[in-house]
Write a structure and sequence with these properties.
The complex is a heterodimer of chains A (496) and B (345).
Chain A lengths: L2 E10 L2 E11 L4 E5 L6 H8 L7 E6 L2 E3 L4 H6 L2 E4 L11 H6 L10 H14 L15 H14 L4 E5 L7 H16 L3 E6 L2 H7 L2 E6 L2 E6 L5 H9 L16 E11 L4 E10 L3 E5 L6 H8 L7 E6 L2 E2 L5 H6 L2 E4 L3 H5 L6 H8 L9 H14 L15 H11 L6 E5 L7 H16 L3 E5 L3 H7 L2 E6 L2 E2 L3 E2 L5 H8 L4 H5 L5
Parallel strand pairs in A: 3-8, 3-9, 6-7, 7-8, 13-18, 13-19, 16-17, 17-18
Antiparallel strand pairs in A: 1-2, 1-4, 4-5, 9-10, 11-12, 11-14, 14-15, 19-20, 19-21
Chain B lengths: L1 H29 L3 H13 L2 H26 L7 H19 L6 H30 L3 H21 L32 H20 L1 H11 L1 H6 L4 H28 L10 H11 L7 H16 L1 H5 L5 H24 L3
Helix pairs in contact in B: 1-14, 2-3, 2-12, 3-7, 3-10, 3-11, 3-12, 4-5, 4-6, 4-10, 4-11, 5-6, 5-10, 7-8, 8-10, 11-12, 11-14, 12-14
Classes of the chains: A alpha/beta (496), B mainly alpha (345).
């Protein structure tokens, strides 16, 4: 199906998410939509798929102007969207999810649907068990299910929002093959991403958004430099390791043991020096999150000692840790980090030690404005935090940290952020290190771990390696350890 | 900003019209003349000087319960137990007055101590709901609901048991206190400027507390996202507990005023439903303390204006209540519709 977007406008409060976007995509094309976080990609796609309405503008499908009022309406017009977080219903079976959303009929018609499911799955070489429960599937498999479902419902335009986040390399290959097949069948594929590599390897053409405006289009052969320039309006380079270690010990852990109902982390002994960065690697749920929360005083250790700047804090609570200069930044920004409904000024006032009984709003606003400028947060002091994009929320969280800090603990500091935000966040973190703050962070991005850490701890189902010098590690070596192999050589004393 | 304000106002006016429409249909269905009914509500509330005084007398406890629940709402708590907290305020005040009425303590001091007793009683009852939530994991809605029943049962026990009138116990309550223990009123009326003044003062305090103090902002932070507030270093359960205590104190004060200024005794149903009505007012004003005074006043007027409907049209006197409920419902629906169609903010 030919898709044409004409003069699309959308604003959220003061934020102009889409400004006069014009884009025509012929059938059978894989169209890349590239842009950093908050550039307006998701907004544009949600308009096309009926989740939100444009303030102004026209959507034309195969030459006919259409009005799309809801996602159900969109699928009637042949437009389907796969969201970054799969919108399926985990406690149901694969086949139930497949049937859901089909119009008409009181009885689900499972038999016939089942045949269609098998046929489509075979066509795309997806191996999905139709009787399995969705909870047991990986993100990649849930994506496959969603693709099949949308095609079965008659989607001829498929939108993929950041589909390569959180899936394995093999699944990515499969996904790309499926997307190419879809295009060959004459379907229109919109591929939204901030990953240059994926876009370059897959898309027939690329449109780049920046601050709500379509700034340019490109066709292969792509040059990375050109795409980056369009995305950010300037070229940026990736910063490098910055060892600024000092001999003072910030954090001393002795035979620390932490556990929850399913996992035990034992005998972690570690000295973290002033200004040092320690990366915690491991598959999700291998014990690194538990360990990180224990060093923040959020979980009480079941054994061992925690010393901070010479003070024994074993068994004390988070409030005491915080008083000793520890800060913890959670991965789920809107659930645990920020307070939806309150604006940035209110956040900055909350984060500071209160002076007096009454709030000095003028002072708060000035503080907020200064930090917003310092941390390059795109927003105003009066913006509520939920109106900011993910990258800007993360910058705001960093801007909220008090000074000085002895120890900064971060869960996935750059998850879901684009290159520019990632580099910016790390440049700010490194500034902290220069001032003597030590950092412990967990990440599932191996490159990030190797690039920014001085030393690395690897977690594998509760077991922890001794600290490893990041400079001596490679992604392959790290990948092996995360997967549970190569631990015996480690125990025999190498690299400790 | 300007445009938004007008749109919001439009939705609220729409909700009001819808609520009026539905009540009109109800009136037509039960065979009462709608326009005349509305006119008699207005004249019942503002027809004479006595009526207006009556409205003002009702306004004061309602303002206090509204002020109280605004604090718990800010902290994200559904303090359904507000009704029982008001009753406990009345019980404690009665208790203090009974203890001291035959002593040598000057009457003015007895009244002050009695009111303080009410404040403490309300706060304690609220603290109980808070403790159940914080330490027992009992949702404040269920805890509060249970404690409301206990409070009612306690009142009935006291009125018919230990505190019964000499001679015969009755639903009309305990033996009235001597006039020396009444809050001074305007000459030849039952309106106490003291009660009115205290109530207005409290709502002003709550307004500034929620709008301009660190305490208020922290309460809101705990209410909107306890996890993030905790990580920011705000001791969350202590703040929830504080919200309960403060709300209980204001609501207990309202119960105390019912005793020292309105009924001069303890009787079953002394709270008159003002606790729940306060919850309605708070929801109607979208938790903005600025609007509490006028809306509570209108609700008080509806309550007083509705009383005589029973005599004139044989309508239940709870008809005004039905209108209040419908109004809140329509405004909440209107708010939902506004967010649905126009986006948040």
């Amino acid at each position: 199906m030919n898709v044409e977007l004409k003069d699309i406008h959308k604003t959220f409060g003061a934020v102009r998410a889409n400004v006069g976007i014009n884009l025509a995509i012929p059938a059978g094309t894989i169209q890349g939509i590239l842009g950093e976080n908050g550039a307006g990609k998701s907004t544009l796609m949600k308009i096309l798929s009926g989740f939100i309405r444009a303030d102004r503008g026209e959507i034309i499908l195969d030459g006919h102007p259409v009005v799309i009022r809801s996602p159900a309406d969109a699928i009637r017009h042949g437009v389907g969207m796969l969201h970054q977080d799969p919108l399926d219903i985990p406690p149901l079976r694969v086949i139930d999810n497949f049937i859901l959303g089909r119009e008409g009929g009181l009885l689900p018609g499972e038999k016939e649907a089942g045949r269609d499911f098998e046929r489509l799955a075979e066509q795309f070489s997806f191996s999905l068990d139709r009787e399995a429960y969705v909870d047991s599937l990986t993100v990649g498999e849930r994506q496959q299910l969603e693709i099949l479902r949308l095609i079965w419902l008659g989607a001829r335009v498929l939108i993929f929002d950041e589909p390569t986040t959180g899936i394995s390399a093999a699944q990515k290959e499969k996904l790309f093959a499926a997307l190419r097949l879809l295009a060959e069948q004459g379907k229109t594929v919109l591929f939204v991403s901030h990953k240059l590599e994926d876009v370059e390897g897959l898309c027939h053409r690329v449109a780049v958004l920046r601050q709500g405006v379509l700034v340019g289009e490109a066709k292969p052969p792509y040059t990375t430099k050109q795409l980056v320039e369009m995305m950010f309006g300037k070229t940026i380079s990736i910063g490098d390791r910055n060892p600024c270690g000092s001999s003072d010990v910030t954090l001393r852990l002795q035979k620390l043991a932490v556990e929850d109902y399913r996992l035990k982390v034992q005998d972690v002994t570690l000295d973290v020096h002033c200004g040092e960065v320690i990366g915690l690697a491991g598959m999700e749920g291998s014990g690194q999150a538990l360990f990180l929360r224990a060093t923040a005083g959020l979980i009480r250790a079941v054994g061992g000692r925690i010393e901070l700047g010479g003070h024994d804090l074993t068994g004390r609570n988070y409030q005491i840790f915080k008083k000793h200069g520890v800060a913890f930044l959670p991965a789920s920004r809107l659930e645990e980090g920020l307070i939806p409904g309150l604006n940035l000024t209110e956040h900055f006032i909350l984060a500071e030690e209160p002076e007096g009984f009454f709030i000095n709003w003028e002072k708060g606003r000035k503080l907020a404005q200064r930090r917003i400028t310092d941390f390059n947060v795109r927003g105003t002091p009066a913006n509520t935090v939920e109106s900011l994009s993910g990258g800007n929320q993360q910058r705001a969280l960093l801007a909220l940290l008090r000074e000085p800090l002895h120890l900064l603990l971060l869960e996935h500091p750059t998850r879901g952020l684009d290159i520019e935000s990632t580099i910016y966040i790390w440049s700010k973190l490194k500034e902290r290190c220069q001032q003597g703050t030590s950092i412990l962070f967990m990440s599932s991005d191996l490159e990030e771990i190797l690039q920014y850490s001085d030393r690395v701890l690897v977690f594998f189902s509760g077991r922890v390696t001794p600290s490893l010098e990041a400079a001596t590690l490679t992604t392959e070596k790290l990948g092996e350890l995360i997967g549970g192999s190569g631990w015996t050589e480690l125990a025999s004393g190498k690299n400790a | 900003m300007k445009k938004n304000t007008w749109v919001n106002l439009g939705f609220q006016v729409g909700a009001l019209i819808l609520a009026l429409l539905i009540t009109t249909l109800i009136l037509v269905a039960v065979g009462a003349p709608p326009l005349k009914t509305y006119a008699s509500i207005v004249s019942g509330a503002f027809g004479s000087k006595d009526d207006v005084l009556e409205v003002l007398i009702t306004w004061s406890p309602l303002l206090l319960t509204t002020a109280g629940v605004l604090v718990t709402f800010a902290a994200g708590l559904w303090n359904i137990g507000v009704e029982g907290q008001m009753v406990l305020g009345s019980i404690f005040t009665t208790w203090v007055l009974r203890l001291l009425q035959n002593s040598q303590v000057p009457p003015a001091l007895i009244i002050v101590l009695g009111i303080l007793g009410g404040v403490i009683g309300g706060a304690l009852w609220a603290a109980l709901a808070g403790a159940l939530k914080t330490f027992g994991g009992v949702n404040e809605i269920f805890g509060g609901l249970g404690l409301n029943f206990v409070a009612t049962a306690l009142t009935i026990y006291l009125v018919f048991g230990p505190w019964k009138r000499p001679g015969v116990a009755s639903m009309s309550g305990t033996q009235p206190f001597p006039e020396s223990l009444w809050l001074p009123t305007l000459p030849k009326t039952e309106l106490s400027l003291w009660a009115l003044g205290i109530s207005v003062l409290v709502i002003v305090i709550v307004y500034f507390l929620l709008r301009g103090t660190h305490l208020g902002l922290r309460l809101k932070a705990v209410g909107k996202n306890p996890k993030a507030a905790f990580l920011m270093g705000i001791p969350t359960w202590q703040y929830s507990m504080f919200a309960f205590l403060l709300c209980g104190a204001f609501v207990g004060l309202s119960g105390a005023i019912q005793v020292v200024s309105v009924y001069h005794r303890l009787l079953p149903n002394i709270s008159n439903g003002y606790g729940f009505l306060g919850l309605l007012v708070a929801m109607l004003i979208n938790y903005q303390a600025l609007w509490a005074a006028p809306i509570a006043f209108i609700f008080a007027a509806l309550n007083i204006g509705g009383v005589q409907l029973q005599i004139i049209y044989k309508l239940s006197s709870s008809f005004a209540g039905a209108f209040q409920d419908l109004l809140v419902l329509m405004v909440l629906i209107g708010e939902g519709a506004r967010q649905r169609f126009l986006g948040k903010g």
